[in-house]
Amino acid sequence: MNLLKWRQLQGFPPLVWIILLGSFFGRGTYFMVWPFLAILLYERFDLGAAEIGLILSASAVGAALLGFYVGALSDRCGRRSILLLGTAISCLAFALLAVAESLSAFVVAMSLCSVGRAVWEPPASALIGDLIPGRQARELALQLRYFLINAGAALGPMIGVWAGLSAQQETFGLTALSYLLLNLAFIWGFAHTVSGRIARQRRNRSARFRDTLRVLGRDHMFLVVILANVLAFFIFAQADSSLVQYLTRAEAPDLVALISSIILVNAVTVMVLQFPLLSLLGPLPVTQRVLIGLAILALGQLWCALNPVDWYAGWLGAIFVVSVAEAILFPTMSVQVDQMAPDHLRGSYFGASSFYALGWALAPLAGGLILEWGSGPVLYAVMFVLCGAVGLLYALSTRLSRPDWSSVRQEPECLPGAVTS
C-alpha cells in the first residue's frame, strides 16, 4: 500500500473504522457456524435438502426486497437510527438461534438474521460515502470493507473448526455478542464523529419514498446495471452449492478434501489479489474494470464446463480464475453504486443493490434444475453464455438516460428534532 493510500486510511473518521471492523468481526462470527446450519436442521429435524434450501432461499429473497426499502428509508430518517435498529435485530436473531429448540423458532430466528443484515448493511455502505468526501478515499474504504468481509468469512469457519465450535448451536451466542458490541460502537461513533453532524444536516432534507421510486424508475442506466449484476451474482453462485451438487452426483474422488480446497483457494485468492488488482486496474473507468472481470469470469465458467470430473488440480485452477474475477467485480460493484448515486439518494441506491442477492438466492434452485435435466458441463456452458449477456447489458447501459435529480421532491426529516445522522 503506497504512502497516499496510507494517509487516506489515517484520515478515515471513527465511524468508518467501526463499519470496517464491525463487518470483519460480525461476518467472522457469523460464518463460524452459519455454513453448518444445514447440518443442524438436518440432524435435529430430519429436513430434506429441498426443505432446507427453501428456508434459506426464502429468507434471502425477503432480505433483498427489504434492503431496498431500508436503504431509501435511511435517506429520509438518517443512517443512525437504521444502523442501530439493524444491529439490534441481528443481536436478537442470533441470540434466539443460540437457544432455539423448535423448528418454528429456528425459522423465525433465521428470518430475523436476514432482516437484520438487510437493515444495517445498505446504510453502512452509504454512510461511508457520507463521511468521506474524496472519491479515491471512498473507493479505498469500500474496497477495504469487502476485503475484511471476505477475511471474516474465510477465517470464521477455520477458527470455528479449530476451536471445536462448528455445528454447535450455542456458538450463535458469539455472533449475538459481536452485534451487541457493534451496536454500542455505533452509539459511541455517532457521538464522537464531527462529520456525522454534516451528514445529519443533509438528511434533514431527504426525498419521499414514492418520489425516490419515481426517480429510480427513470434511471434507465442504473436499472440495467442492477439487472446485469443480479445475473453476475447468479453466475458466481454456481461455483457454490451447484458445484458441490455436481461433484457429488458425479462421484468426484476425494470429494470432502476437494470441496475444502475449493473454499480455501477462493478465500486466499480474493484476499491476496484484491489490492494488487486494485492497483493495476484502478486507473481504468469502473465499466472497463467490470468488463475485464466478466471476461475472466467467462473463462472460469468455460474451464468448469470442460474440466474432467476427476481432475483435482483442474477444479482448483478453475476456482482460482473465478476468484480472480470475484476480486475484481464484487468490490467494483460497490464503488460503481457509490459513483452513480447522488448524495441525497445514496442510501436508496445502495438499498437497490440489495437486489443483487436475488441472483445468489435463486442460483441453487436453477442450478439444481439444470443438473437434473442436463449435466454439469451444460450448467457451466449456460453460465458462459450468460457472461456474454451481462457484458452486452453493460454495453447497453452506457447509452441509456439518467434522470434529473432536482425533480425529487424534498420534505422535512423523518422525525422532527431526531438525531438522524
TrEMBL record:
The keyword Repeat does not apply. The keyword Metal-binding does not apply. It is found in: Cell membrane. Its main location: membrane. Residues 15-406 form the Major facilitator superfamily (MFS) profile domain. GO terms for cellular component: plasma membrane. One of its GO terms (molecular function) is transmembrane transporter activity. It holds the Pfam family MFS_1. Keywords: Cell membrane, Membrane, Transmembrane, Transmembrane helix, Transport. It is a multi-pass membrane protein. It comes from the Bacteria. This is MFS transporter. It comes from Parahaliea mediterranea.
